[in-house]
């Protein structure tokens, strides 16, 4: 594949909807998601002469989209003095443990085979809804680390937090998601 196989006239029709869904899942704001996708298309148009064909057109565009999303996170941090404190939100499962750190009651058995749950649209919808309910900072950190797979060092650098701070917040986020998912267990067939 070389740069002549790029067809910018088809980008919006072929990839626009999936790019928008990708962006909205990460930024949770329609206007920002629209802007990010538009900026991605513009950046791709400006950089099309540098496209070397080492990846598929879609992969190349989504790589640019990911970078635009990271830029959005950095701008959000810069504009709003995004500081994350450990005490902002208490651990939602703190009362699940006694003073020695042992479970007061064992965690609930969901009765779901993880391999069958993986790819289950209903489980995905519930998890997406639970992620939407997270506070913006917890959602951003969770998406970057667990969905995007960004390394901890770069996240800590972008948000000016320590690794310990990040891991505590991710622990709290997972506990929030666990509680939310458990509240929807009857809906999962």
Your description of this structure?
- The protein has 189 residues and is mostly helical.
- It is 63% helix and 0% strand.
- The protein has eight helices and no strands.
- Helix 1 packs antiparallel against helix 2 (30-47), helix 1 crosses helix 3 (57-80) and helix 6 (136-147) crosses helix 8 (163-183).
**Which fold name fills CATH's third level, the topology of the largest domain?**
Arc Repressor Mutant, subunit A
- The count of domains is 2
Q: Return the structural class.
A: mainly alpha
Helical content band: 55-70%
What profile does the largest beta sheet have? none
What is the residue-mean pLDDT, rounded to a whole number? 81
Order of helices and strands: HHHHHHHH
Q: Strand-residue fraction?
A: under 5%
Q: Uncertain spans, ≥5 residues at pLDDT below 50?
A: 80-88
Radius of gyration: 20 Å
Euclidean distance between termini CA atoms: 45 Å
Tertiary shape = globular
The overall strand count is 0
| Helix segment tally | 8
* CATH superfamily heading of the largest domain: Winged helix-like DNA-binding domain superfamily/Winged helix DNA-binding domain
Identify the CATH class of the largest domain.
Mainly Alpha
- The CATH architecture of the largest domain can be named as Orthogonal Bundle
